[in-house]
Each structure stands twice: as structure tokens, then as C-alpha cells.
């Protein structure tokens, strides 16, 4: 089939248009498909299909704009996401929520390591599941950061994104199904008295005029700075890992300043995330996903290990169902799904779900890098 697009400008413009159309469709329409396939996954699938049908020519100019866009968008996005963190609010979480949160991190890490060993992953899929661990400790942004640092191929990243989508969808349905059984579970763990009043706990969300251009300028400066530092020889493991770590440090540092009060960082960061996903999808090939069922099964096995450890921990530490469920979904799902689950228990608890999910943006990158390197070491 003749290649259709050879211009790098048309290539990047088409991906931006694709992102805009899919996000608008999710926000403005009532298509039921978005309840099962989030916009971020839909963007990847459509971009991958376009690439598989030869819409994008594989030439040097397109390769250059792909690598440059990815190299700069990744640290810019991480910086903006991490501006939302508020450590003061996190410190206010009660005993049951803090224990549940770290228990979720431990159980997911153990699940990834155990399943990777049992399924005997090769180096490529081990690194892909390392990227997936970044998502299940933070979000898709962390998956891209960890995957880039571990040099995950576009096809392997596609596997990880599909596993993430399928398992996440069924997991949130399962956790919502459990809500009416909270009283029975809390009786089992003797944790009725652990339900504290958490309605005043919130996230670092801001109110006021959206200052998108200022945020974009800050993000560009951060991207330029971290790439400059990495290019002059200051390298931790590899170039991408260095930029990821430096952007994370700058984002956390910015969260302690008045930069945190600038409204609109979440929207700009999400736009950058969607463009990154479209870029990665444009380099994947549809024909390479024949074995996805095996990896979806591996993802379910990770969730089973995670669930068993969470229930055992709940019994030992007398944790209530809300605490372990919100800790689990704030890692595996993210802000939106954690908010939905929290509201299913009590609308006043939405801030708790948001806060725990936002903290995952910080922990997901470092946790994913740690787990990912262990998985690659096992595979080697």
C-alpha cells in the first residue's frame, strides 16, 4: 500500500487532530463505548490502526519529529502533573488509609515480580510489564515515563496498554460491586471503628482562571532544562531516565511553591499525555498483537495476588473495605475512577480518592522503575 503521509508537520497535526476529536467525542457525546474503552486507550488504538494501514510513512523526518516531541513532552507533562501534589494533605490521612496505601504498593510490586517469574517473560515483555507497574502505581503518564526509561518498544507498550485497559475496567466494576458488602467485610476485619471522618481532606486542586499559556511556558522551560542537563553528560542509567527523574524533582519542588496555585496544570498535562499516547501508537503495528490474551491473563494473576494480600492485610491491621478499595483503585485506576468509587461510599470522601491518586503520580514513576528493573533482571 502506498504511504500517504510523509510530511512531519502533517503527521504531528493529524495526531493532534485525532486527540482533539476523540476527547471531544468522550466529553460531548453519550457513546457507551467510552465507558469500557477510555479516551486514552481509544487514541492509542486509532493511531495504531492508522500506522498498521500505512498511513504514516516511515522516513527520517517523521522519526525525528517523533523522537523530539516525545523527548520534550514527557518531562513537561510529568512536571505539570506533579505540581498538584500536596504533602500536607497526604499527612492528614488516617492510619487505615496510610496502611492500605502502602499495602497496595507492596502487593502490586510483589504480584508483578511473582507473575513475571512464573510466566517466564522475555526481556521485552518484562520491560513492558515494568511500564505497566508504573501505571498501576500511578497512571498512564507514569507508564509512559517508565516505559521510555526502560526502552520499551512500541508494540510491547501496546500490549501493556491493552492489559491495563482490560484489567482496569473489570477491576473497577468488581470494586463497585463490593460497596454494598462493606458492613459485612468490616465485621470480618473488626474495623467498624476505623472509619474516621475524612470529609475535610482534599487534594491540591486549585480554583480560579486557567493560565494555560503560563503553564505551557513553564513546561517548555523544564523540558529544555532537563534535556540540556542530560545532554551535557549528567546521566542516571540512561538519557530518558535522567530527564524523568529531573522533571519529577522539579515538579515536586514546584508543588511547595506558589506554582501549585496556578490553575489548569491538570488539563495541559492531560493534553500532553494524549499526544504522547498517539505518538507511541503511530509507531506500533496491529499485526503484532496475536498473543495479547496471555498477557491479559498475567495481569489478572497480578490482581489476584494483590487482592489476597490486601484482604489478609485488612484482617491483620483491621482495615475497612473503603480504605483498601480506594487504596487499590487510586493506584490501578487513577483520579477519575478513585473519585467514582469514593463517591459510591460517601460523596464527602471524594477528596480522599483524589488525593491518594495524585500521590501515585509521584510514587508511580520511581516504583515502576524499581519493579521494571527487577523484572528485566529476572528475565535476563
Main attributes of the structure:
380 residues; globular; single chain; mainly alpha
Task: Describe what is shown at a glance.
With 380 residues, the chain is mainly alpha-helical. The protein has 17 helices and no strands. Residues 196-200 have low confidence and may be disordered.
Present the secondary structure layout.
Blueprint: H1 8-28, H2 33-36, H3 39-52, H4 60-82, H5 87-90, H6 95-118, H7 123-137, H8 140-149, H9 154-178, H10 182-189, H11 212-231, H12 239-254, H13 265-281, H14 292-317, H15 321-332, H16 335-345, H17 350-379
Helix pairs in contact: 1-3, 1-4, 1-13, 3-13, 4-8, 4-11, 4-12, 4-13, 6-7, 6-14, 6-15, 6-17, 7-8, 7-9, 7-17, 8-12, 8-17, 9-14, 11-12, 15-16, 15-17, 16-17
What does this structure look like?
This protein has 380 residues and is mostly helical. It contains 17 helices and no strands. The chain has one domain. The longest helix is centred in the last third of the chain and has 30 residues. The radius of gyration is 20 Å and the shape is globular.
What string gives the helices and strands in order?
HHHHHHHHHHHHHHHHH
Percent range of helical residues: over 70%
Largest sheet: none
Unreliable segments of 5+ consecutive residues:
196-200
What general form does the structure show?
globular
Total number of strands: 0
Tally of contiguous helical segments: 17
For the termini, the CA-CA separation is: 38 Å
**Mean pLDDT score, rounded?**
84
Amino acid at each position: 500500500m502506498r504511504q500517504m503521509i510523509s510530511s512531519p508537520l502533517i503527521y504531528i497535526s493529524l495526531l493532534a487532530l485525532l486527540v482533539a476529536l476523540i476527547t471531544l467525542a468522550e466529553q460531548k457525546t453519550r457513546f457507551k463505548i467510552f465507558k469500557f474503552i477510555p479516551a486514552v486507550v481509544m487514541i492509542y488504538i486509532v493511531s495504531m490502526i492508522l500506522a498498521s494501514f500505512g498511513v504514516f510513512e516511515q522516513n527520517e523526518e517523521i522519526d525525528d519529529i517523533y523522537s523530539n516531541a516525545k523527548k520534550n513532552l514527557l518531562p513537561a507533562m510529568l512536571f505539570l502533573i506533579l505540581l498538584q501534589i500536596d504533602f500536607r494533605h497526604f499527612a492528614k490521612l488516617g492510619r487505615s488509609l496510610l496502611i492500605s496505601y502502602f499495602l497496595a504498593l507492596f502487593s502490586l510490586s510483589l504480584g508483578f515480580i511473582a507473575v513475571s517469574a512464573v510466566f517466564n517473560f522475555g526481556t521485552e515483555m518484562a520491560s513492558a510489564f515494568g511500564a505497566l507497574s508504573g501505571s498501576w502505581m500511578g497512571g498512564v503518564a507514569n507508564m509512559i515515563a517508565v516505559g521510555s526509561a526502560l526502552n520499551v518498544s512500541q508494540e510491547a507498550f501496546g500490549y501493556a496498554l491493552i492489559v491495563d485497559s482490560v484489567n482496569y475496567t473489570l477491576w473497577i466494576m468488581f470494586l463497585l460491586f463490593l460497596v454494598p458488602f462493606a458492613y459485612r467485610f468490616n465485621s470480618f476485619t473488626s474495623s467498624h471503628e476505623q472509619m474516621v471522618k475524612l470529609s475535610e481532606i482534599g487534594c491540591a486542586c486549585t480554583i480560579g482562571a486557567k493560565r494555560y499559556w503560563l503553564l505551557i511556558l513553564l513546561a517548555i522551560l523544564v523540558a529544555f532544562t532537563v534535556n540540556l542537563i542530560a545532554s551535557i553528560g549528567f546521566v542516571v542509567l540512561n538519557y530518558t531516565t535522567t530527564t524523568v527523574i529531573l522533571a519529577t524533582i522539579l515538579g515536586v519542588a514546584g508543588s511547595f511553591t506558589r506554582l501549585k496555585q496556578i490553575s489548569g496544570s491538570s488539563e495541559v498535562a492531560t493534553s500532553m499525555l494524549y499526544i504522547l499516547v498517539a505518538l507511541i501508537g503511530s509507531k506500533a503495528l496491529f499485526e503484532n498483537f496475536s498473543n495479547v490474551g496471555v498477557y491479559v491473563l498475567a495481569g489478572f494473576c497480578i490482581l489476584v495476588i494483590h487482592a489476597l494480600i490486601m484482604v489478609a492485610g485488612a484482617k491483620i491491621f483491621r482495615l475497612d473495605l473503603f480504605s483498601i478499595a480506594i487504596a487499590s483503585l487510586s493506584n490501578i485506576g487513577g483520579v477519575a475512577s478513585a473519585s467514582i468509587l469514593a463517591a459510591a461510599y460517601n460523596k464527602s470522601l471524594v477528596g480522599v480518592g483524589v488525593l491518594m491518586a495524585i500521590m501515585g503520580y509521584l510514587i508511580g514513576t520511581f516504583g515502576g522503575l524499581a519493579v521494571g528493573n527487577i523484572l528485566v533482571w529476572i528475565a535476563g
